[in-house]
Specification:
It is built from nine helices and 13 strands. With about 300 residues, the protein is α/β, with parallel strands linked by helices. It folds into two domains: about 140 residues, D-Maltodextrin-Binding Protein, domain 2 (3-Layer(aba) Sandwich), CATH 3.40.190; about 100 residues, D-Maltodextrin-Binding Protein, domain 2 (3-Layer(aba) Sandwich). The strands form four sheets. Strands 1, 4, 5, 6, 7 and 13 form a six-stranded mixed sheet that branches. A hairpin with a 2-residue loop joins strand 2 and strand 3. Helix 2 packs parallel to helix 8. The longest helix is centred in the N-terminal third of the chain and has 49 residues. It is globular and about 60 Å long. The termini are far apart. About 30% of the residues are buried.
């Protein structure tokens, strides 16, 4: 004790204060580093846990949540106990083959909103007619291609007895300065924008809020609009209905493209499970049967 008092007498107080302050700052700094390390470890663990349990959680809850576009090609409610649609039936078969008892289908006509729901983990799969675009790989993960399709221009047929005052478009160059209507958030907006640059003239692209494919066809029939763009298979199924017999879809606006389902990038095990299953199922007789049923392709 006497030695310590002697030390205090010899060391000036301002120097002692500086030493104590320095030790205090070192203690606070070390504490902050420890807290930051704990937080970072927790975040990394939680992220790793989510990545390693995404499919396990689906199995645990016995529920697969799927967001779909409401049309007769993808998903349609037939009655209280029955649904239709190529993609919906495929999803149900995947769930059955993996002993998942409940499939919850969520209708969403806007693709942008559907992608937001996927990225916010509100759904597990986005079963949509989505062309594979490289720029979207930064946001979503694609499954292996489910089928191929292209975008088609839908317009009224030429009628010699009752000619339409609107020009019939037989090639893409004739779309110059025309108004073309699409679904909200449709991926093919980008294709139409590119086409506008390719032909060196304007194409006026108009989205119809909250519309589904049949709404665009109804507007064409009623002459509220003159040109619309839809996925080929979606349009092909709808155009079988008698009220649309006066519509034409012979003019393509894109090349044939691969279409896939979308998965949240943080659910790689689910993506692997889907890819393994699709690789086998897409070659099966069961798939070929329903594919022919919905697309008319032999």
């Amino acid at each position: 004790m006497r030695a310590f008092l002697e030390f205090l007498r010899l060391v000036p107080m301002n120097q002692l204060d500086k030493k104590m302050a320095k030790r205090k700052h070192l203690f606070i700094g070390s504490g902050c580093l420890v807290i930051a390390f704990i937080i970072l470890s927790f975040v990394l663990f939680a992220h790793s846990y989510q990545r390693n349990t995404d499919y396990a959680l689906i199995k645990e809850t016995n529920t697969l949540r799927v967001i779909v576009e409401p049309n007769s090609m993808s998903y349609q409610v037939v009655d209280i106990d029955s649904i239709a649609g190529l993609q919906a039936l495929m999803i149900q078969q995947f769930a059955k083959d993996h002993n998942i008892g409940n499939v919850v289908f969520i209708n969403e006509p806007n693709l942008s909103a559907a992608i937001d729901s996927l990225l916010q983990n509100k759904v597990d799969i986005l079963a949509w007619h989505i062309p594979i675009y490289n720029q979207m790989r930064q946001k979503i993960s694609y499954t292996i291609p489910v089928f191929t399709s292209r975008q088609m221009l839908i317009q009224r047929k030429q009628n010699i007895k009752n000619p339409d005052s609107v020009a019939f478009i037989s090639n893409q160059l004739e779309l110059a300065n025309q108004h073309v209507y699409i679904l909200p958030g449709a991926f093919y907006r980008q294709r139409l924008s590119n086409l506008s640059r390719e032909i060196g003239d304007s194409i006026f692209i108009k989205e119809i809020p909250n519309a589904v494919p049949s709404n665009l066809l109804d507007m064409l029939v009623d002459k509220h609009i003159d040109y619309a763009v839809l996925d080929e298979f979606v349009a092909r199924v709808l155009l079988k209905q008698p009220q649309y017999k006066g519509l034409d879809m012979s003019t393509a606006i894109s090349f044939t493209q691969n279409y896939s389902w979308a998965i949240n990038p943080d659910t790689p095990i689910l993506c692997d499970s889907l890819n393994s299953w699709l690789a086998v199922y897409l070659e099966s007789k069961a798939y070929n049967k329903i594919y022919r049923q919905y697309t008319g392709v032999k």
